[in-house]
Design brief:
Distance between the termini: 38 Å
Number of domains: 1
Largest sheet: 4 strands, parallel
Strand content: 15-25%
Structural class: alpha/beta
Bound molecules: riboflavin
CATH class: Alpha Beta
Radius of gyration: 15 Å
Strand order of the largest sheet: 2-1-3-4
Helix content: 40-55%
Number of strands: 6
CATH superfamily: Lumazine/riboflavin synthase
């Protein structure tokens, strides 16, 4: 698997841009809170490292990943927000909930982005187990929250320009 070969959060090849003039909302699910808390830390660190002001980062906690859709929709009522980062962690269980939640969140977030014409970033881990999630929440494969922050900055700057 390609992800076993690299740290997924190596952004050295990307032009990120400065986030100082952008306002962000981070919507974070409380299911698998240890993981999503680490994703949140990574996202805030990533935004601030690229110039975002902490006062321009709003954090909204929702119950589970399924609620990220409504959470993103609600925060975008605030027209001053330039980009939304959705953070969650869905871990495969014994039933088919995993598939339903992952599909709904992926499609739902895309729909919200198109509804408001604003970037809504998919920072949801969808893993077979807790270990894979930890590896991507500050472990050996980096921090997917930080990666989502970089994407939010890039897309926020594009959105601001056009
Ligand atoms: N939410 C997550 O963010 N991650 C999960 O792994 C997760 N697993 C769930 C498994 C089951 C069987 C159920 C019923 C819910 C799960 N949820 C999970 C919560 C879901 O995102 C949502 O909060 C609830 O279904 C209420 O709408």
């Amino acid at each position: 698997m390609s992800s076993s070969l690299k740290n997924l959060s190596d952004f050295s090849h990307l032009e990120v841009g400065n986030a100082k003039g952008l306002k962000f909302a981070i919507v974070v699910a409380q299911w698998n809170a240890t993981i999503t808390g680490a994703l949140l830390d990574g996202a805030v660190t990533g935004l601030v490292a690229h110039g975002a002001l902490e006062s321009n980062i709003e954090v909204v906690r929702v119950p589970g990943s399924y609620e990220l859709i409504a959470g993103a929709d609600i925060v975008l009522r605030d027209e001053s927000i330039d980009a939304v980062i959705c953070l969650g962690c869905v871990i495969q269980g014994e039933t088919r909930h995993f598939d339903f939640i992952c599909n709904a969140v992926g499609n739902g977030i895309a729909n919200v982005a198109l509804k408001y014409n604003k970037p809504v970033i998919f920072g949801v881990l969808t893993t077979d187990n807790q270990e894979q999630a930890l590896d991507r929440a500050g472990g050996k494969h980096g921090n997917k929250g930080e990666e989502a922050a970089i994407t939010a900055i890039q897309m926020g700057l594009i959105s601001q320009k056009y």
